[in-house]
Amino acid sequence: MTKTNNQNECLANASPSIKLAVDLIQLLEENQIETEVALEALEIVTKDFKRKQCIDSKKL
């Protein structure tokens, strides 16, 4: 089995959060996003999703 096949197999068995992280990293790298810009954007996304999580938990 080649290294790429082994990596694909591991990814197929990975958790949804790992799969999403890999996709996001690939998207950022393919679009040559500067590291600082990516980190700032990810902070914004994190804050937004934490806010949504808080709102959703209050609905329960």
In short:
With 60 residues, the protein is mainly alpha-helical. Helices cover 83% and strands 0% of the residues.
Radius of gyration: 16 Å
Helix tally? 3
Largest sheet: none
- Beta content: under 5%
Helix/strand class: mainly alpha
Q: Helicity level, as a percent range?
A: over 70%
| Number of E-state strands | 0
Structure description:
The protein has helices at about 5-10, 15-30, 35-60. About 85% of the residues lie in helices and about 0% in strands. It is mostly helical. The mean pLDDT is about 90. It is built from 3 helices and no strands.
What topology does this entry show?
Blueprint lengths: L2 H10 L3 H15 L4 H25 L1
Q: What would the keywords be for this entry?
A:
60 residues; mainly alpha; single chain
